[in-house]
Design goal:
It is built from 17 helices and 22 strands. It is an alpha/beta fold. The strands form four sheets. It has a seven-stranded parallel sheet, sandwiched between helices. The chain binds nicotinamide-adenine-dinucleotide and 3-phosphoglyceric acid (3PG). Nicotinamide-adenine-dinucleotide binds next to α5 and α7.
Length: 526
């Protein structure tokens, strides 16, 4: 039974869902803060469910040889080493919508907090002061909200701000003009946003491009008296530059939910009279935490139990409906790829995957990835279904998919055409009776299933060969399970593909290669 490790604080709903779906669950809400304990606990986990406290770094992933999926109950995956996970064949999924409304509401709450100095006025009133004239605020009505990043959260913030009768100017290079019109926001460039906004709120991920997007220079382009809100990620605002701008009075106020270093227990902005801080509470509502816990548990259980993939950052999606239809073809793509890969002895230059018949209408991306991974596996260490496209592209291997609606002689076939430095080889397979079968090799028709131990022989089609091969194997104590033959033309090139009951060792291969008319002999394993 697959085992799930939950290493951050998640709603009990997640634990219940995992259990209801028949998975083993270990719930250790504080484990993410204890690296040594995490490294130990993850050793036999198939799935890791986290929020942002657990750092799923390369060494954590390497300590989990069985790990297949990391589920982030939330949006940001900056605490997960995506490359390390991909290289280890671990699917990383998040819950992109589960806490978006909640986080957008927090940004709006923070905007009001700094517009009306509510936290400061609250503290003063609790102290028994009645400082009615100390907290003069500003209306948001009619003001311009500058939105940096207009994705899931940014667009919800925009709709709430429009409801408050603010004007919204959005900077997001990936926001299409049509979407901007649909949202009722004005698409602007960053400089225009900086120059016009009364409030600026950031809703981008932290990337090389967005790091310090509010830098000393860009803060210098803002209006005097601007108010800044960051409920996205620490590092988007240059904290030193922000302090300087607050101290000079150029920035009137700032509201920060996120910090460059978290947990932030000490910070130069703490105690600043115009700064409002919350401890990364953007997603902290009962509703959002229920949503993300439920979604992540269902997604992870679906993947481990059915192969369905939702909201993955490093794998194409596979719906619950598609997963059972794809399963036999995934096995076929892997078997054909493994067959082609084991026969390949020189560098692969190109791989074409030809889908014919009913399989051409399925979700082909995972099939292609499975085939590429299986082809490259004998040559490249560490390749897997998740990282196969990246590795192929790094090696300059050209990948193409061809689709034809009709498959000759069969309901559906997958053909792999592998071009190496020396030649192009094809192998075709189909599913019959639910089992993957090879039906063509190098243009020669045949019909064989895949077995743990196989022997592949190419030979001249001459009398006596079959008997000699059977005798040679018998002399070496190798029992033949199935014997499949195919040939191009009578007397021409022929192929024998045998399933045998034990491993074909190098001495057996040597004896087979010595048989008259044999051109090539290879031991294969599946
Ligand atoms: N404070 C919290 O607790 C909390 C909760 C949820 C999400 N978040 C964070 O909020 C942020 C936004 O989340 P989301 O779900 O809206 O993400 P999203 O992917 O839906 O939207 C991000 C938007 O940023 C835009 N973008 C990317 N690069 C940009 C650039 N260089 N300049 C301008 N725009 C750019 C993208 O085009 C996209 O539209 C993320 O950083 C996420 O981690 C924080
Ligand atoms: O990216 C997110 O979803 C938020 O930052 C929430 O993070 P949390 O789950 O640690 O509260």
């Amino acid at each position: 039974m697959p085992k799930i490790l939950i290493s951050d604080k998640l709603s009990p709903t997640a634990v219940q869902i995992f259990r209801d779906r028949g998975l083993d669950v270990v719930y250790e809400p504080d484990l993410g803060k204890d690296k040594a304990a995490l490294l130990e606990a993850i050793a036999d986990a198939d799935g890791l469910a986290v929020r942002s406290a657990t750092k799923a770094t390369a060494d954590v992933i390497a300590a989990a040889p069985r790990l297949k999926v990391i589920g982030r109950a939330g949006i940001g995956v900056d605490n997960i080493d995506l490359d390390a996970a991909t290289n280890a064949g671990v699917v990383v999924m998040n819950t992109p919508f589960g806490n978006a409304i909640t986080t957008a509401e927090h940004a709006i709450a923070m905007m009001f907090a700094i517009a009306r100095q509510i936290p400061q006025a609250n503290a003063s009133t609790h102290q028994g002061k009645w400082e009615k004239s100390a907290f003069m605020g500003t209306e948001v009505y009619g003001k311009t909200l500058g939105l940096i990043g207009c994705g899931n959260i940014g667009s919800i913030v925009a709709s709430r701000a429009l409801g408050l009768k603010m004007k919204v100017a959005a900077f997001d290079p990936y926001l299409t003009p049509d979407r901007a019109v649909e949202l009722g926001v004005e698409k602007v460039d960053l400089d225009e946003l900086l120059a016009r906004a009364d409030f600026i709120t950031i809703h981008t991920p932290l990337t090389e491009q967005t790091k310090n997007i509010l830098s000393k220079e860009s803060l210098g382009k803002t209006k005097k008296g601007v108010r800044i809100i960051n409920c996205a990620r620490g590092g988007l605002v240059d904290e030193d530059a922000l302090k300087e701008a607050l101290d000079s009075g150029h920035v009137a106020a700032a509201a920060l939910d996120v910090f460059a270093t978290e947990p932030a227990t000490e910070h130069p902005l703490f105690g600043h009279k115009n700064v409002v801080c919350t401890p990364h509470l953007g997603a902290a509502t009962t509703e959002a935490q229920e949503n993300v816990a439920l979604q992540v548990a269902e997604q992870m259980a679906d993947y481990l139990l059915t192969g369905a993939i939702t909201n993955a950052l490093n794998m194409p999606s596979v719906t619950a409906e598609e997963a059972p239809k794809l399963r036999p073809y995934l096995a076929l793509a892997e078997d054909l790829g493994s067959f082609a890969g084991q026969l390949t002895e020189t560098g692969v230059k190109a791989i074409e995957i030809i889908y014919a018949g009913s399989v051409s209408k399925l979700n082909r991306k995972p099939l292609t990835q499975a085939a590429i991974a299986a082809i490259l596996k004998p040559m490249l260490q560490g390749v897997n279904i998740v990282n196969a496209p990246t590795i192929a592209s790094e090696r300059g291997i050209e990948i193409t998919e061809t689709v034809t609606e009709k498959a000759r002689n069969f309901n559906a076939t997958i053909q792999l055409k592998v071009t190496t430095e020396r030649f192009t080889r094809t192998v075709t397979g189909t599913i019959f009776g639910g089992i993957p079968r090879v039906v063509e090799i190098k243009g020669v028709e045949m019909e064989a299933t895949f077995s743990e131990h196989m022997l592949y022989v190419t030979n001249e089609d001459k009398p006596g060969f079959i008997g000699a091969l059977g005798s040679t194997l018998g002399e070496h104590g190798i029992n033949i399970a199935t014997f499949n033959l195919g040939r191009g033309t009578a007397g021409g090139d022929a192929i024998a593909l045998l399933a045998v009951d034990s491993e074909v060792t190098p001495d057996v291969l040597e004896a087979v290669r010595a048989i008259k008319h044999v051109k090539q002999a290879k031991a294969l394993s599946f």
